[in-house]
Amino acid sequence: MSVEKVAVVVAGGSGMGAAAAKRLAADGFKVAILSSSGKGEALASELGGLGVTGSNQSNEDLQRLADLTLERFGRIDVLVNSGGHGPRAPILEITDEQWHTGLDVYLMNVIRPVRIVAPHMVRQKAGAIINISTAWVVEPSPMFPTSAVFRAGLAAYTKIFANTYAADNVRMNNVLPGWIDSLPATEERRDSVPMQRYGTSDEIAATIAFLASDGAGYITGQNIRVDGGIIRAI
């Protein structure tokens, strides 16, 4: 008898997180969704899953999500960490408070849920964690300084996690989107992409679904760019 697999999507009420939840549900996962609005609960209801309204900056909300998921489904096989947008300003004008906000939005948004969920995966001897990051980790953009700095830290965190838990069959990878259609479109940004178009949230979701699948069972500690060719560094 096959085991019904369960995916938790943090910040999954809209955009790429919601697209990931829909794709994983279509692939046969039971889904649990956390969002700061009622959108996550509504989407989870549509998908026959579990929805919790709360913040990925709250350990209490994340613990509640994990507890309710385990109570209802008995396991967690996949954790997808999405997030919002942090402060943007010229680098010397960013205040201490804004840097701390960037830390919460772009790095702690992963560290908090992983700290709660990963021990369950280790006990199962199976699990996949996928974090939505940014294509500009390797080539930081001055347009998004807090994102670039803390997501570079996320890349380091991911490598350390992968080294530590690979033997337990718990994997972690980052998806690095470029310009995606959940953002406002501009001709300048579109023209900067070799494929001459924005990517879609569904394309990001498809990459997440692959990394969550058994077919990606030998992939861990990686940063997978999905950016239409903007960044081509090794």
Give a brief outline of the structure.
This protein is an alpha/beta fold. Helices cover 44% and strands 16% of the residues. A seven-stranded parallel beta sheet has the order 3-2-1-4-5-6-7, with helices on both faces.
Question: Explain this structure to me?
Answer:
This is SDR family oxidoreductase. Belongs to the short-chain dehydrogenases/reductases (SDR) family. InterPro entries: NAD(P)-bd_dom_sf, SDR, SDR_fam. It is built from 7 helices and 7 strands. It is α/β, with parallel strands linked by helices and 234 residues long. Strands 3-2-1-4-5-6-7 form a 7-stranded parallel β-sheet, with helices on both faces. The longest helix is centred in the middle third of the chain and has 29 residues, at 96-124. The radius of gyration is 17 Å and the shape is globular.
Helix and strand sequence: EHEHEHEHEHEHHE
Q: Please, how many helices?
A: 7
Proportion of helical residues = 40-55%
**C-alpha Rg, in Å?**
17 Å
Poorly predicted runs of 5 or more residues? none
* Helix/sheet category: alpha/beta
Record keyword descriptors for this entry.
alpha/beta, 234 residues, 7-stranded parallel β-sheet
Write the layout of secondary structure elements.
Blueprint: E1 6-10, H1 15-26, E2 30-35, H2 39-46, E3 50-53, H3 59-73, E4 78-81, H4 96-124, E5 127-132, H5 145-165, E6 170-177, H6 187-191, H7 201-212, E7 223-226
Parallel strand pairs: 1-2, 1-4, 2-3, 4-5, 5-6, 6-7
Helix pairs in contact: 1-7, 3-4, 4-5
